[in-house]
Amino acid sequence: MTRREVSGRGGWKAAALVVFLAAIAAASCGRSRPPAPLQAVLVEAEADRPALIRVTGLSSAEAGALSSAADLAVWQRFMRVMVAGGEDIAMAGTYRIADGALEFEPKFPLDRGRDYVVRLYPSRLPAPRSDVAIAKVLRRAAGPSTAATVVTSISPAAGVWPENLLRFYIHFSGPMSRTTAHDYVRLVDDKGVEIEAAFLRLDVDLWNTDHTRFTVFFDPGRVKRGIRPNRELGRALIAGRKYAITVDARWADSAGGPLGAPFRHEFAAGPPEDRGIDPKRWTIGGVTSGSREVLVVQFPWALDHALLQRALGVARAEKALDGVVTIAGDDRAWRFTPASPWSAGAHELVILTVLEDPSGNRVGRPFEFEMFKAPAPESGERVTVPFVVR
Amino acid sequence: MRLRTTLKLAVVFAFAAATMSGPLVAVRTTPVAAGPALKSIGPLAFGPAGVLFAGDRDAASIYALNLGSEATGGAPGTADVAGIDQKIAAVLGTAATEVAITDLAVHPTSKNTFVSVMRGQGAEAQPALLRVDGKGAIHVVDLAKTTFTSVTLPNPPAATPGARQNPRTQTIMDLGFANGRLIVAGLSNEEFASKLWSVPYPFAATDRGTSIEIFHGNHARLETNSPIFSFVPYNVSGQPNIIAGYLCTPLVKIPLSALKPGEKVLGTTVAELGAGNRPIDMILYSKNGQDYLLMSNTSRGVMKIPTSQLATNEAITARIGGTKGTFETIASMTGVEQLDLLDTGRSIVITLQNGSRNLSAVILP
After folding, report:
1. What is the distance in angstroms between the Cα of A215 and the nearest Cα belonging to chain B?
2. ipTM of the predicted structure?
3. Which one of A8, A116, A307 has the shortest CB-CB distance to B191?
4. Cα angle vertex A354, ends A353, A358, to 5°?
5. What is the pLDDT of residue A217?
6. How confident is the model over A18-45, as a mean pLDDT?
7. Among A1, A215, B48, B335, which is most buried by a count of CB atoms within 10 Å?
8. Which uninterrupted H or E stretch holds A228?
9. How far is CA A90 from the centre of its chain?
10. Residues 6+ apart with CB under 8 A from A32
């Protein structure tokens, strides 16, 4: 099998040489019958190869002449595949002769539901035919329809958000597209009027790995007091007022379809939360040795839903315990069910210092504080709070 | 054009270095010939001997690509290409709406422009690297023909073993190469922390991410964890630094020698370039014996910033209103989405004009 790959332009000298040689070959052999008509068809993907375009009707001499062409331009002069309605530029891909047919395998999979134009120029075959150029439009069938993706929840889920909230998460029932959220997630007031410039627009979209959770940051320049956007525009949220986060159903999921429904989370803005996290103020519940009772840690205010799932743990004799973590009470409680029964004795609640609340306050240090009055930041990776299992 | 000269100022800022346990950076040090299995392709930067650093944001990895024959083959230089997004889409067999241009970088010798692209929006979206040559021909780089080494930025460990799958990701904001080290600025999708990684290249040893905090003169409070959006390496008074652009828009110099985990260091802000803005790209160039930064922004256009002020500013002691530092807004450069240095006299930009993206060379101001 001969393969030639194209992704741009090719020279013409080699093409002319092959045409010349092939013409001599054809003339010397002669033709006993008229050539079969050329036909282009789309061949759907199989397990071991992507969808491709196959051209049948080539004589063995024509196929052989193409096969022996060293220059991509020979193939591309005869056959070009382009996006219908797009630029007159041949798609990148690989040409080959397989089982007597000419195959074009695109470098990137043909989009489902998109029209592609295949142009064949019989007069440009190494042994030219007199047929006029052929144009055929081909399309892969749209993929099987899947259940529409929906927003399943938002974090924080509480009905009151501090007016200096820095970050929230939108959770989806399935994977979403790479389309940025900018045009689809809005903050509106109780009259439905959008609060402009509320969110931080990044070049990158902050998805989790499987595109089922999207992170939205409020513009920190408006959140922080005293900084110019804050002075000029104020905070996007003002305590005492009512708002909603809306998610437009036109936001495409990974299959390209819209969401099954728009989403709306209504909340009231509360006073700013500008305290550093202080684990000494947490309440650590009691558990009984020999049991697998749930250890419940309660916080004075909600902490970050995502960070709680990895930034808290339990250790005994400096060895982390395995267990199942759940978050409860609108992110004001952390529940740990140990994999093995509790042992009596000293334990530690381990807090990674990356832990934040939704306003960006960290352990021992609020999100913003006076420059030269700053409390000493937690420089270590973790802090611990001892407790005893009896 | 307007020239603004304002008070010199400086800002003190501190690095709180995170101490992490376990392997900090996963490294592939032996070149692999089968080509990288990129999940995505984002920031680009050329390094020594024409190696192309390509950031894979989805995998939090940086690939050092030896382009081999894929680096050459085109006409030298880069020709202007109108409708570059539509032409790239055509080559990739899709519509321009399905193409997201994520960065560009100019090859140091051929002066061809390499453009990173994500093709598609859905789960099957694929990365693509393209080369634009001096005749405007667009070539899809065959990554299978490249060899590579790579590093992966780690997620910090979870406090509970066996906790459910960690949905935290670490994205890459910008890349740069200086003094034998690859510098990577990152941002998490959870904590609002800015990490700066300094990794020796070739990837033999590893380094730790440094958490960064700055004191932002625009609001006289600690700017905790603000992410770096763009940076360039630059020698200030003979000392290697990176010059970093932040949200809202302090310009900060950070000595490379300071990027050591476990230490606090002092740095300096050299300018406050205006609120309601963030940097997109920065390049360095020389003109008439002077060095300049050229910085594209989301809402404050393109700024020409003399670097002479980097060495002379003092530490800040009070809040700054408005902008500070010396810079000039280049009114003729609008809609700039991507920016790199093409040659000694020109930049190469991708601009968005009337819904279409154009690749063009622009005389350096």
Report:
1. 6
2. 0.83
3. A307
4. 120
5. 92
6. 66
7. A215
8. helix A228-233
9. 28
10. none
